Amino acid sequence: MEDETGIIDVVAAAVRKARKGLGLSQEDLALEAGVDRTYVSQVERGTRNCTIVIVARLARALKTSPDQLLVPQRKGRSSF
Length: 80
Fold this sequence. Notes:
Elements: H1 4-21, H2 26-33, H3 37-45, H4 52-61
């Protein structure tokens, strides 16, 4: 089982990859999710441990489901 830092890194990578895949800026994502741009930056850098409510908001804004932001990304294949 992954430690807490591991899952934070998984969410960080998934959010960043999904956002870039949609061509959104951090500010665009923040506006859609109803959070501050600096919050999105902290999530993507893995310095913010966000709540499940925020994961759900980010997922909705990224046109995915919350569980997809919790799945480690495979190298070489994109799931977004």
